[in-house]
Automatic annotation (TrEMBL):
<dbReference type="InterPro" id="IPR000847">
    <property type="entry name" value="LysR_HTH_N"/>
</dbReference>
<protein>
    <submittedName>
        <fullName>Transcriptional regulator (LysR family)</fullName>
    </submittedName>
</protein>
<dbReference type="InterPro" id="IPR036390">
    <property type="entry name" value="WH_DNA-bd_sf"/>
</dbReference>
<keyword id="KW-0238">DNA-binding</keyword>
<keyword id="KW-0804">Transcription</keyword>
<dbReference type="GO" id="GO:0003700">
    <property type="term" value="F:DNA-binding transcription factor activity"/>
</dbReference>
<comment type="similarity">
    <text>Belongs to the LysR transcriptional regulatory family.</text>
</comment>
<keyword id="KW-0805">Transcription regulation</keyword>
<dbReference type="Pfam" id="PF03466">
    <property type="entry name" value="LysR_substrate"/>
</dbReference>
<feature type="domain" description="HTH lysR-type">
    <location>
        <begin position="1"/>
        <end position="58"/>
    </location>
</feature>
<dbReference type="InterPro" id="IPR036388">
    <property type="entry name" value="WH-like_DNA-bd_sf"/>
</dbReference>
<dbReference type="InterPro" id="IPR005119">
    <property type="entry name" value="LysR_subst-bd"/>
</dbReference>
<dbReference type="GO" id="GO:0000976">
    <property type="term" value="F:transcription cis-regulatory region binding"/>
</dbReference>
<dbReference type="Pfam" id="PF00126">
    <property type="entry name" value="HTH_1"/>
</dbReference>
C-alpha cells in the first residue's frame, strides 16, 4: 500500500471526482484511475460506486476513509517531528586514532556532550589501514585521523580540520647525560612512521637503532626519561615542550606537514546528530 494511493483516494473524496483530483494533484486522470485500481486490488474490495459520471463511496470506502486519513496525518506528523526536533538526539559513532583520542578529542567531546546531552557519542578505535571498510560497513560514522596533508581515500569525503607538523624530541631535563641514540617508534603502522624510517636510514649516527613501543604516550614518557628520542606530531608534546620536560631538536628532514582529517563515506546519510557534531567541531576549531 503506497502513501500516494491513499492521498489520491482522500483527494477524490475531498474534490468529488477523479478528474478534479487529477487536476489537484497534477496527475493524468489515467494515473488517478490506476492508483485506485491498485488500492482496491490490494484491499480486495471496491471503494467507490461508479455510476456514469457520478461516484460515491461504498460502505467499505466509508469504513476505510478515516484509516487512510490517519495514516496520511501520521506520515505528515512524523516528517514534521523529524525536521523540527528541538534538541538533537541519537547516536554518533566516532572512530579515532589513539593519538587523537588522548590529545585532541577529549576536550571537544566534553563540551559537545554538555551542550547536546541527548546525543550519545560512541568512541571506537580506528584501524589506520582499514579506514575505508570501517566507514563503508557503518562500523563508524565519522573517522578522525592524523596523516600527511595529501591524504585521500577512495569513496571517502575527507576534510582537513587543521594543519599539524612533526617535531623531533629529546629529553629536556637530562642532567647533562648524553642523549640516547635509540629512536623510539610506534609498533603499529602510522602515517609518519615512513618519515622516521627514512631519517634513520639517512642519518650519520651509526649507533641509532629503532625500538618499538606500544603507544605514543609510552614514547613520550620514555623520551622524558632519556630512554631514547622520537619524532611525533607537535600537538602531542606541546605541554611537555612548554614545561621543559622535552626539547625540540632542529631537524629539517622531518619538517613534513601533517593534518588532522575528518572522513565520512561518500554514500553515508548524515543524520541530525552527526550534522550538529560536524558543525560544532567547525566552530570549536575556529575559536
Amino acid at each position: 500500500m503506497e502513501l500516494r494511493h491513499l492521498v489520491t483516494f482522500k483527494t477524490i473524496v475531498d474534490k468529488g471526482g477523479f478528474k478534479k483530483a487529477a487536476d489537484e494533484l497534477g496527475y493524468a486522470q489515467s494515473s488517478i484511475t490506476a492508483h485506485i485500481h491498485d488500492l482496491e486490488s490490494e484491499l480486495e474490495i471496491p471503494l467507490f460506486n461508479r455510476m456514469g459520471k457520478s461516484i460515491s463511496l461504498t460502505q467499505a470506502g466509508e469504513t476505510f476513509l478515516p484509516y487512510a486519513m490517519e495514516i496520511i496525518d501520521l506520515y505528515s506528523e512524523s516528517k514534521d517531528r523529524l525536521r523540527n526536533t528541538e534538541e538533537p538526539s541519537g547516536i554518533v559513532i566516532i572512530g579515532a586514532s589513539e593519538t587523537l583520542m588522548i590529545h585532541w578529542l577529549p576536550s571537544i567531546l566534553g563540551e559537545f556532550m554538555e551542550k547536546y546531552p541527548k546525543v550519545e557519542v560512541v568512541l571506537k578505535s580506528l584501524r589506520f589501514e582499514d579506514v575505508h571498510s570501517q566507514l563503508k560497513s557503518g562500523e563508524i560514522d565519522i573517522a578522525f585521523l592524523v596523516d600527511l596533508e595529501n591524504w585521500t581515500q577512495k569513496d571517502v569525503w575527507a576534510k582537513k580540520i587543521r594543519q599539524e607538523e612533526l617535531v623531533h624530541i629529546l629529553p629536556g631535563k637530562n642532567e647533562r647525560r648524553p642523549f640516547s641514540p635509540r629512536m623510539l617508534t610506534t609498533e603499529y603502522k602510522c602515517s609518519w612512521r615512513p618519515i622516521m624510517e627514512e631519517y634513520m636510514n639517512t642519518t650519520t649516527d651509526i649507533n641509532m637503532k629503532a625500538i618499538e613501543l606500544p603507544s605514543v604516550e609510552a614514547i613520550k614518557k620514555s623520551v622524558i626519561c632519556n630512554l631514547g628520542q622520537s619524532i611525533v606530531p607537535r600537538f602531542v608534546v606541546e605541554k611537555e615542550l612548554k614545561d621543559g620536560e622535552l626539547i625540540e631538536y632542529p631537524n629539517s628532514k622531518v619538517k613534513q606537514e601533517l593534518a588532522i582529517f575528518q572522513a565520512i563515506h561518500k554514500d553515508k546519510w548524515v543524520s541530525k546528530s552527526m550534522s550538529v557534531f560536524i558543525d560544532y567541531l567547525d566552530i570549536a576549531e575556529q575559536l
